Structures are given as structure tokens and as C-alpha cells.
Amino acid sequence: MIHRKIHQFSNGVKVxxxxxxxxxxxxYKRLNVHEAEEEDIFIELIQAIPAEGCFVNIGAAIGxxxxxxxxxxxxxxxxxxxxxxxxxxxFYENVILNGFSPADFVIYKEGIASSDGIAMFVDNxxxxxxxxxxxxxxxxxxxxxxxxxxxxxxxxxxKRGNASKLLAIKTITLDSLMSIISRPVxxxxxxxxxxxxxxxxxxxxxxxxxxxxxxxxxxxxxxxHQKCADILEKYSYVIEFAExxxxxxxxxxxxxxxxxxxxxxxxxxxxxxxxxxxxxPR
Length: 282
Prior knowledge:
Elements: E1 6-8, E2 14-16, H1 22-30, H2 36-47, E3 54-58, H3 64-72, E4 77-81, H4 85-97, E5 106-108, E6 111-112, E7 117-122, E8 129-135, H5 144-155, H6 160-163, E9 166-172, H7 174-181, E10 187-190, H8 196-201, H9 204-208, E11 214-219, H10 222-234, E12 238-243, E13 252-257, H11 271-275
Parallel strand pairs: 3-4, 3-10, 4-5, 6-9, 10-11
Antiparallel strand pairs: 1-2, 7-8, 7-9, 11-13, 12-13
């Protein structure tokens, strides 16, 4: 029997070490959690959810945040979105490793995008993301082969070595996902490698009707950070916390809520403060 090394985080979450990449292992040697600044915020948000509440994780990867949420509140209903088949496999392995059952999580393989249809998805390990979306009735793609060829050309990717990393996946909007879930969601957390604003653009109905109580968004770059804040404020969400360049993790952070504020122990960031980033030098 092959023995597999296990990495256990300070919060109790366990993952198989062979799921990790070198840069993560080095980061965890300094602070043994996945994202140092986001960790405390995530825990505070999850603990503010009712015991029978609902949590949605978009870009779940190998399952770190859904598993942590389940450890914190075992009765939560958890939906996880992960288009990369390899990471879904790792997710299921880590679910068992942490003493849970696959039935404790609802995992979707679709990508979340600004429209329902088909998208090009680049397999770049933890940096994987949707790079181009097309509507279902796009008549240019008479077959999967020709569809991929068209998307490759449109994306400017022509080298054969890179083509093996590209996949055609089904995409749905966050509004469509909310229709499937068919219940209010207490927290949506997302890490979609720069396409955060696109996901929000596909959620206009959910944002308007308060189907989603709060967001925790990992942002990628100042422009994306600002776009997300603008969209959320447009739909009357309160920006409770915002940091576009944390010291101990690669992703920025936005926390936004509607109805009842979720963060009670942390300094709030006003809309004016968020918008001031536009005037700051790069």
C-alpha cells in the first residue's frame, strides 16, 4: 500500500501533500493556512451564518474552504463549483480524508460566467480560469473540434503545446445557479482568477432581489477589484472590508453584504474609501 503524505493546516483541515504545488508549500511554512488575511475574515463570516444556512464556493479547487466551513458548522448546506476534473477528484479525496462523505457537499462541474453556454477553460492548475465564453446558439461551432479551433484562434493561442491545456466546458451564470439552488444563500465566496466582475454581471437578478446575503471575493488586480466594488454598490451592497493588495496572500479581498452586516469585529471600509483607489498612483 502506497503511503501518501498529508498536510494538516493550523485550522485542522487536511489535504494530501501531492495536491499542493511548491509555492504553496513555501507559503504554508510561514503561516500554515491557505490565505492568511482571508482566513480570519472567512471564519467570522461563516460563524455569522445560521446553523442551517447555505454557503456557495465558486472556484473550490481541492476543497479547502468548503471543508473548513463544514468543520466549523457541520449543518451548513454547501455548494462547491469546480470546473477542473482533476481538482474535483482531489476535492473528493480530501472530503474523505477529513472524515466527511461526498454527500455532505454538492459539487458542480460547470464554470460560472457572465452567460450560459460554452467557454474555453485553461487548465493552469490553481490558476485555471474561463478565458472565453460563447452562447449556446453560436452557429460557428459545428463540432467540438471546430469549436476548439475557433476559440484557440480568438484567444491568440496557436501553439500545440498550449492546446492540450485548453478545455471546452459548460458555463452557467450565477443567476442560473441560484435558480438551481432555489433558496437564499448566506455567503458566496469566489476565486475565479480575474473574472470576478464577469460573474457578478451574470447575477443581476440575484443581486437585485437579495437572494445572496453576502460576498467574499478574491480579486485579481486593482481594476478587477474596483469593478467588483462598483457593481456591488450599484445593487446597494455595503462594502464591509476591502484590501486590493494584502501582504500575506496573492489575492485581494472584498466583503460585501446586503440587509445585515456580517463583520462585527473589523474596521469597515466605506464606499468613498473604495472609490479613492481610482485616484491613487499605481
